[in-house]
Specification:
Strands 2-1-3-4-5 form a 5-stranded parallel beta sheet, with helices on both faces. Strand 4, helix 4 and strand 5 form a beta-alpha-beta unit. Helix 6 runs antiparallel to helix 7. The chain has 8 helices and 5 strands. It folds into 2 domains: 135 residues, Rossmann fold (3-Layer(aba) Sandwich), CATH 3.40.50; 71 residues. By secondary structure, it is α/β, with parallel strands linked by helices.
């Protein structure tokens, strides 16, 4: 069962949200302030959090900031509940990592729509991550020792080439200005750009190398 955490210091609003979401079949946990909400998030690891912004001692921004710094809770979808409609307030929450906003007073349909939308997006994101992990595992399984060594040698050679080209460019720039010097610099820069472009044509090469060679 999907578990939701509601962090709201106003008793009536918290009670209404808990009842509404329970009737929709969600498992719901309530917290009456930011500190108990933060503890509840660590303890229950909910699938989604709805949190009021304006609360004493530890406000919603503080809660979100703390959650995003913890590996266990950093990926939990987070919806702010607020009476603030100023764009700067909304932007502040989004910068911290909020996924959505519900403005007080809210309707039943607004709450359910926001919750269902965030849960669906989270499910899609998790499915995509799982698929990428499977593809990575299959790719790693298909690499034999010779191919692994080749990848390692390829990375080293490309790194060496870029360093050498950079040295050549800096050396050419110390020569007296001339048409030949400018043509030489342009030629070396084009070669360097080609090396970098080749690296970019191999998706996730650096990730593949790091995970394969460790």
């Amino acid at each position: 069962m999907v578990k939701l955490l509601i962090i709201e210091d106003e008793v009536e609003i918290r009670a209404n949200l808990l009842e509404l979401l329970k009737l929709e079949g969600y498992s719901v946990v309530g917290a009456d302030n930011g500190m108990t909400g933060l503890i509840g998030a660590m303890e229950h690891t909910p699938d989604l959090i709805i949190c009021d912004v304006m609360m004493p001692k530890l406000d919603g921004y503080d809660v979100l900031r703390a959650l995003r710094q913890e590996p266990k809770t950093m990926g939990i979808p987070f919806i702010f509940l607020t009476a603030l409609t100023n764009k700067s307030d909304i932007r502040r929450g989004m910068v911290l990592g909020a996924d959505d906003y519900l403005t007080k007073p809210f309707t039943r349909s607004e709450v359910l729509s926001a919750v269902e939308s965030r849960l669906q997006k989270q499910a899609i994101s998790q499915a995509q991550i799982s698929e990428l992990q499977k593809e990575s595992q299959l790719l790693h399984a298909g690499l034999n020792n010779d191919q692994t060594a080749l990848l390692k040698d390829m990375r080293q050679q490309l790194n060496d080439a870029v360093v050498k080209l950079d040295i050549v460019i800096n050396t050419l720039k110390t020569l007296p200005p001339s048409e030949q010097r400018e043509r030489s610099i342009a030629l070396v820069q084009n070669v360097c750009a080609a090396e970098i472009k080749m690296l970019g044509r191999v998706p996730n090469l650096e990730y593949l190398l790091e995970t394969t060679l460790t």
